[in-house]
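Example record

The entry below shows one chain as it appears in the dataset: sequence first, then structure tokens.
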Amino acid sequence: MKNKAFDNTSRILLNKTCPLSGKDAPKIDYKNINLLKRYTTEKGKILPSRVTQVSTKKQKQLSQAVKRARFLALIPYVSNWCIILIEKICSLFYMALC
């Protein structure tokens, strides 16, 4: 008799399709800011493909496009609230020294 805690055969396999593949899929380009923002977090990190269901080939294109857009300052490396938080911490540290 098998232990159900270690039984991997009962897993339900879902049909996963890439949202960036197909007829009506948007083209991955570093100039398409709205598409790139959908696949980055609030802090500016690129979401992994296991979360977004993007294929490996499209994930590589997506990460390359995000990196190009960051380099050209089309999207930020870090979100604005992180920068504001760092500035507040630095000002508090400066006030403590005075």
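Notes for this example: The mean pLDDT is 84. The helical segments are 33-38, 49-52, 56-71, 80-97.
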